[in-house]
Amino acid sequence: MPELDSSVKNVVNETIAPMGRSMIREFAEKFAKIPGLVKLTLGEPNFNVPEHVKDAAIESIKENESHYSDQKGFLSLREAISGYLDKQFDLKYDPETEIIVTIGATEAIFDSLAAIINPGDKVIIPTPTFALYIPIVKILGGVPVQVDTTDDGFCMTGKHLEEVIQAEGPDKVKAMMLNFPGNPTGFVYSKEQLQEIVDVVKDKNMFVISDEIYAELTYGHKHLSLAKLMPGKTILINGLSKSHAMTGYRIGYIAGPKDFVEEANKMHAFTVTAPSNPAQFAAEEALKNGIDDPIAMRKIYQERRDYLVGELNDMGYETVLPEGAFYTFSKIPAKYNLDSIEFANKLAEEGLVGVTPGVAFGKGGEGHFRISYAASMEDIQEAMKRLRKFTDNL
Question: Which segments of 67-114 does DSSP mark as H helices, in order?
Answer without folding.
Answer: 75-89, 104-114
